[in-house]
Write a structure and sequence with these properties.
The complex is a heterodimer of chains A (637) and B (390). Chain A is built from 28 helices and no strands. Chain A has 637 residues and is mainly α. Chain A folds into two domains: 214 residues, MetI-like (MetI-like fold), CATH 1.10.3720; 256 residues, MetI-like fold. In chain A, helix 1 crosses helix 18, helix 4 crosses helix 8 and helix 22 crosses helix 24. Chain A is globular and about 75 Å long. The relative contact order of chain A is 0.13. Chain B folds into two domains: 236 residues, P-loop containing nucleotide triphosphate hydrolases (Rossmann fold); 139 residues, OB fold (Dihydrolipoamide Acetyltransferase, E2P) (Beta Barrel), CATH 2.40.50. Chain B has eight helices and 22 strands. In chain B, strand 1 and strand 2 form a beta hairpin. The radius of gyration of chain B is 25 Å and the shape is elongated. The C terminus of chain B is likely disordered. The chains are: A mainly alpha (637), B alpha+beta (390). Chains A and B meet through helix 23 and helix 24 of A and strand 6, strand 7, helix 2 and helix 4 of B. Chain B: This is ABC transporter ATP-binding protein.
């Protein structure tokens, strides 16, 4: 690179050489912005890199905790155990995890692709209702969903098994579906996670302009040829990104393996990791071995993340350029419309309606019994609900859940906005910005299991000096690792802002930080608030992270709920109350999510109203929420 | 080139260079050694096609781009120099952007008050209000202060952007294609308004545009830019009537360009041999017989007679030709006339239009014929309405 001797000392604006001596701020630098960026990057490194580093250290440092124990020493014996004596075990874990995650991803993406295609690209009747029905489970806590599925599939009293028996599809008194079968668990995991890929695929299909397909038709291609040669290839990269993202999400999920995998799921990574650190017999947990396991899977995760980055490269920039008003052509289904509707119903009944029904049934009946009219009239009880509502610990854990979810979402969104502004608006410095972008996006790829475990190691090691273990603040920090969700949304939103709005701020005499605070932040607010709500809901639903970090004193509602339905937690076991709590919990999350959303729309419209002079029609401000962001309300439109 | 009195210099730019990296490998030179000087109260225009470096030059002056080398002095204060770089917010400027860059989350009032709020000085609410209302009055937006900025029409947003740029009372006003987003009628109106305001407030302005009509009508001086360099600087009349290069002649207005050889010094001017015939023209000092030059004249400077005139005006050249084509433009017709081996463009009032195939007589006044001073620009011949020597 050429050097111009005259341009060394400057207080800001080192467009092309700014980052030579480390991170020194956003576009144009400026001490305030530089400091904010430095802090945000440090927080991100702390949230994302440090725990994983501690995990790697643990893997090469003894059997138990990595620091502070006199017996700790450097060495590869954990890996020796893993590859040597336990080699067959590792291979089995790899195979079972690949089958479970791959199979459930396949099931979920196929279902989501078909549903998204039907509601976005065809004239299927009732599209809006179907969209809502597919999306709503996204907001239901995953542990509640898993619980609902388990109740629905219970061999004797499960409503689905009951229906199948009634239809003469095998089984006498129990079955035909065995919920603890490996295949059942895989399909359940897939069907319970359709909403997420559906939300991501809808905008991808919506944003595909009609002109490409029309051009193909005009070139003489039939509808099928157009679909195969134009539509599919154009949707392929986006779909691949969704596949990888979902696989990584499912990789880190503990709920379904924990509830369904007691017999055959013991070798699925997330459950295995959890079992290593919570041994049932009196032996000491072998953290080092677990870390070695996890380190192996980290390699796989990094490879998957590369695929994800490759599949989605430039997607935001493309969306920013083409985010105009598309109205995709809808394929007329004709006489196939009823067949399509039947297919949708076939999906919705066992995945959404029956699990919720089973959950409700469990909450209003005193013990597990088949769904019949006589059972309903004879045994209906509200006892579980009143017991749950009178339970002091229920309210305490609900309060903790709210505090943790709100604090972690706030921290993550604040950090994400600063970093997104820096990566999106630093001219030159491509490689450095790409690295920062990858760091900020990486939590999409890091399975929650691994983060929960790493954070457990980190805070256990730190506990001698900073006694955070067992407090909710460990959970706040751990939950904030999902900062990438807020980052991706903020990044797209920054790209939607016309850079001249910021230039105008500088030209009007505002420092870089003042431009960020007074112009960029207010313009990002709608998108940031959307991201915040999403992260609050994710935090409220979080189950995997507290599995590693929560104690009975700090556990959020999701884990208190689990202790109610886990037969091993002897004195707390009360599945009816658990179901009642699940229902209340779900209602709370739904109300909080949609209430907050309603609040934003009202606030925004109030601002518009206050400024509106009746004569002039208000021109809506530029939309800042990107098509790539999985924000439910946008997709529902 | 400039004869500006040094005490009133507002902006002085010397040897400005700005490169952009192209895919990491080679650099694209956006600005290649631009120098210019603007006096107080001037409306100085950078005119050129897109990608000629005019906006980059302006953004370097604003501090939104960092030049690779060169020196910029604003009101006597060096803002870019060896070891000196003053950031945008501390330069004494106001700027109007092509997109207006009106902040949609602020009211009209807040948009204008913004520069007062961020300059770190304490002011009473009353003073802010007084100054904002004053400048809104100047741009005729006094009644709109409480509106949301997004409710304004294009022309109003443009005036709001101007008010925001003026409220700091900047030494230099930077205008980056401020009229290009307006529709044609509004643009004409704003052009007049902007020029009038600039004169009334006596604010110095650096104006960037690709529109020659804007440049010619608004500027006190124009610099025509091409490929990162200023190719000619002068008053609008000089630029139009005495283009220095083939590029300027072609870019500003429509021009007939003829390669010519100086054959003889006449009493008032010179005689040049061209493909169209021998033409009388005024030549720059130092011209000698035998020089090969390019001469230029505007289509509207040609008088066209349908029948041979009784006598040509003194010093004018008469040429006979055939009309090949007539294009109707509304307020005029453009005729393509074959004249010897040359093809000339002639503008005429539509009511006196010839028909295709007519024989016409062309009268060229010596004052209307200029010889390009930049000899390097003679070859190679450019495309367009250009005739080659036979």
């Amino acid at each position: 690179m050429r050097r111009v001797p005259g341009f060394r000392s400057s207080d800001r604006g080192r467009d092309r050489r700014r980052f030579r001596g480390g991170f020194r701020g956003g576009p144009g630098g400026g001490s305030g912005m530089r400091a904010a960026t430095a802090v945000a990057v440090l927080v991100m490194v702390y949230l994302l890199v440090i725990p994983l580093a501690v995990q790697v250290v643990s893997a090469v440092r003894g059997t138990y905790l990595p620091f502070g124990l006199p017996s700790s020493r450097w060495g590869l014996h954990n890996f020796a155990d893993l590859y040597g004596g336990l080699g067959g075990d590792l291979l089995r874990t790899l195979r079972d995890t690949a089958l479970f995650v791959g199979g459930s991803t396949l099931v979920a993406v196929l279902a989501a692709w078909g549903l998204a295609w039907l509601v976005v690209r065809t004239d299927l009747p009732g599209r809006n209702v179907i969209t809502m029905a597919v999306i709503v489970p996204f907001v239901i806590p995953p542990i509640v969903r898993a619980q609902g599925y388990l109740l629905m599939l219970a061999p004797k009293s499960g409503v689905l098994n009951q229906m199948l028996r009634a239809a003469g599809l095998g089984g006498h008194g129990s079955g035909p579906i065995d919920p603890f079968d490996f295949a059942t668990m895989t399909v359940v995991q897939g069907l319970a996670n359709v909403a997420f890929p559906f939300l991501l695929l809808m905008p991808i299909m919506q944003n595909m302009g009609r002109s490409h397909e029309e051009a193909a038709r005009a070139s003489g291609a039939s509808a099928w040829q157009t679909f195969r040669r134009v539509t599919l290839p154009m949707l392929w990269p986006g779909t691949l990104g969704v596949v990888v993202l979902l696989a990584m999400l499912l990789f880190g999920n503990l709920e379904v393996p924990l509830l369904f995998g007691q017999q055959e799921g013991g070798h699925i990574f997330s459950l295995k990791l959890w079992k290593i650190i919570t041994p049932s017999t009196g032996e000491l947990p072998r953290y080092g071995l677990a870390a070695a396991y996890s380190a192996n899977f980290l390699v796989i995760v990094v490879l998957l993340f590369r695929v994800y980055l490759w599949a989605t490269r430039g997607a935001d920039r493309r969306a920013a350029v083409t985010g105009k008003d598309y109205r995709p052509v809808r394929l007329p289904l004709g006489r196939f419309r009823y067949a399509a509707l039947a297919l949708v119903a076939l999906y919705l009944v066992p995945t959404t309606i029956l699990p919720l029904l089973a959950l409700l049934w469990s909450a209003v009946t005193p013990y597990a019994m088949p769904v019949t009219w006589s059972n309903l009239t004879h045994h209906l009880t509200g006892g579980a609900f009143s017991a749950a509502l009178g339970d002091h610990e229920f309210w305490a854990s609900l309060g903790r859940t709210a505090v943790i979810a709100v604090s972690s979402a706030t921290l993550a969104v604040a950090v994400a906005m600063v970093v997104a502004y820096t990566t999106a608006r630093t001219p030159g410095k491509r490689r450095r910005m790409r690295a920062l972008d990858a760091l900020a996006s990486s939590s999409l790829a890091i399975p929650a299991t691994m983060v929960g475990f790493s954070a457990f190691l980190l805070y256990s090691s730190l506990n001698r000096w900073v006694p955070l273990m067992g407090t909710i603040w460990v959970l706040v920090l751990a939950y904030s690792y999902r900062v990438s969700v807020a980052y991706r949304i903020s990044y797209s939103a920054v790209l939607q802002i016309n850079p001249e709005l910021e230039d105008a701020g500088s030209a009007a005499g505002a420092s870089r930080f003042a431009v960020f605070r007074r112009i960029v932040v207010p313009l990002l607010m709608p998108a940031a608030f959307g991201a915040w709500i999403q992260m609050v809901i994710m935090g409220a639903n979080e189950f995997t992270l507290p599995a590693f970090l929560a104690t009975p004193e700090s556990r959020p509602l999701s884990w208190y709920l689990y202790s109610r339905i886990d037969p091993e937690s002897a004195q707390l076991y009360a599945p009816g109350q658990g179901a009642a709590m699940a229902v209340i919990f779900t209602v709370c999350v739904l109300v909080a999510g949609y209430g907050l959303r309603l609040l934003t729309t009202r606030r925004t419209s109030a601002r518009t109203l206050a400024a509106t002079v009746p004569a002039a029609p208000a021109e809506p401000a530029a939309p800042v929420v990107t098509a790539a962001s999985p924000v439910p309300d946008r997709a529902a439109r | 080139m400039s004869t500006v009195d040094t005490t009133t210099i507002c902006l002085d730019v010397r040897d400005l260079v700005k490169d952009y990296p192209v895919d990491g490998a080679s650099d694209h030179r956006a600005v290649g050694g631009v120098s210019l000087t603007i006096a107080e109260g001037e409306m100085y225009t950078l005119l050129g096609s897109s990608g000629c470096g005019k906006s980059t030059t302006l953004r370097c002056v604003a501090g939104l781009e960092r030049p690779d080398s060169g020196r910029i002095e604003l009101a006597g204060v060096p803002v870019v120099d060896q070891g000196v770089y003053v950031p945008t917010e501390r330069r004494d400027i106001g700027m109007v952007f092509q997109s207006y860059a009106i902040w949609p989350h602020m009211s009209v009032f807040e948009n204008v008050a913004f520069p007062l709020r961020v300059d770190g000085r304490r002011r009473t609410k009353k003073e802010v209000r007084r100054r904002v209302e004053e400048v809104l009055g100047t741009v005729r937006l006094a009644d709109f202060a409480s509106r949301s900025a997004t409710q304004l029409s294009g022309g109003q947003q443009q005036r709001l952007a101007l008010a925001r740029a003026l409220i700091r009372e900047p030494r230099l006003l930077l205008l980056d294609e401020p009229l290009s987003n307006l529709d044609a009628r509004l643009r004409d109106q704003m052009r007049v308004e902007l020029r009038e305001l600039q004169r009334r407030l006596n604010v110095t302005a650096l104006f960037v545009t690709h529109d020659q009509a804007e440049a010619l009508s608004m500027s006190s001086r124009i610099a025509v830019m091409d490929q990162g360099r200023i190719v000619q600087e002068g008053t609008p009349r000089e630029i139009y009537q005495r283009p220095a290069t083939r590029f300027v002649a072609d870019f500003v207005g429509t021009a007939n360009l003829l390669d010519a050889e100086v054959v003889e010094r006449a009493a008032d001017g010179w005689l040049l041999r061209t493909a169209a015939g021998v033409v009388r023209a005024s030549c720059p000092d130092g011209t000698r017989v035998g020089d090969r030059v390019t001469m230029t004249f505007r289509p509207e400077d040609i008088r066209m007679h349908l029948s041979p005139p009784d006598a040509a005006a003194g010093g004018a050249t008469m040429l006979a030709g055939t009309v090949d084509r007539v294009d109707f433009f509304g307020e005029s017709v453009e005729c393509q006339v074959s004249c010897g081996a040359a093809v000339l463009l002639v503008h005429r009032h539509p009511q006196a239009a010839p028909r295709e195939g007519d024989t016409v007589h062309i009268e060229l006044a010596a004052e209307g014929c200029a010889v390009l001073t930049d000899r390097g620009a003679r070859l190679p011949a450019a495309a367009g309405p250009v005739a080659k020597a036979g």
